[in-house]
Design a protein that fits this description.
It is a single chain. By secondary structure, this protein is mainly alpha-helical. It has two domains: 81 residues, Winged helix-like DNA-binding domain superfamily/Winged helix DNA-binding domain (Arc Repressor Mutant, subunit A, Orthogonal Bundle), CATH 1.10.10; 83 residues. The protein is built from seven helices and three strands. It has a three-stranded antiparallel sheet with strand order 1-3-2. The longest helix has 33 residues. InterPro entries: Tscrpt_reg_PadR_C, Tscrpt_reg_PadR_N, WH-like_DNA-bd_sf, WH_DNA-bd_sf. GO terms for molecular function: DNA binding.
């Protein structure tokens, strides 16, 4: 996936300025695809140069602001991207590399960091479940777009639940072997 496709998706949901896009991105697509505000602005420039989005100057008292909308070519690009094949991406997580390093070193106890990560995953799961309760109440009729958005959210829920189960199992295994680094 590329950041440009995430931005096109967000702008199709609602045209907005770069600043609004960055804030909205943090609250929605940012749960599954991270990008800094600087990366978002840089990508907006590329999309504009490729004639996939069009900015409209907005009058403002605080400098220049531009409202971005997706052009037909941008919509076509996103439609084509949606139907292309893509292979699953491998796990890329710093904690797992730290654990491998700790195994090689034999002198480092990473269980504190593992517990911290467990807490972060637990908080993220709680946030996803709150979003589900607020945006997709049980028994409510759903449109096709709502079903797709809920499916994405449920993937996040399943991901966090899997990480919590893994953390619990790994911490239990490490606890059974003793508290020391080489336990």
């Amino acid at each position: 996936m590329s950041l440009s496709h995430a931005i096109l998706t967000s702008l199709l949901e609602k045209p907005c300025t770069g600043a609004e896009l960055a804030r909205r991105f943090d609250k929605s697509l940012g749960h599954f695809w991270q990008a800094t505000h600087q990366q978002i602005y840089r990508e907006l420039g590329k999309l504009e140069a490729a004639a996939l989005v069009e900015p409209q100057e907005l009058p403002t008292t605080r400098g220049q602001q531009r409202l971005f909308t997706v052009l037909g070519a941008g919509r076509s690009e996103l439609e084509g991207w949606c139907v292309r094949e893509a292979d699953p991406r491998p796990i890329r997580d710093e904690l797992l590399v730290r654990m491998r390093a700790a195994a090689v070193l034999g002198t480092v106890d990473v269980t504190v960091e593992m517990r911290r990560h467990r807490g972060l995953h637990e908080a993220t799961l709680a946030r996803y479940l709150a979003i589900e309760a607020a945006d997709f109440p049980a028994g409510a009729a759903r449109s096709r777009p709502d079903e797709l958005q809920r499916a994405v959210l449920l993937a996040g829920v399943a991901f966090e639940q899997a990480w919590l189960a893994w953390c619990d199992d790994a911490l239990a295994e490490l606890g059974a072997r003793g508290a020391g680094p080489q336990g």
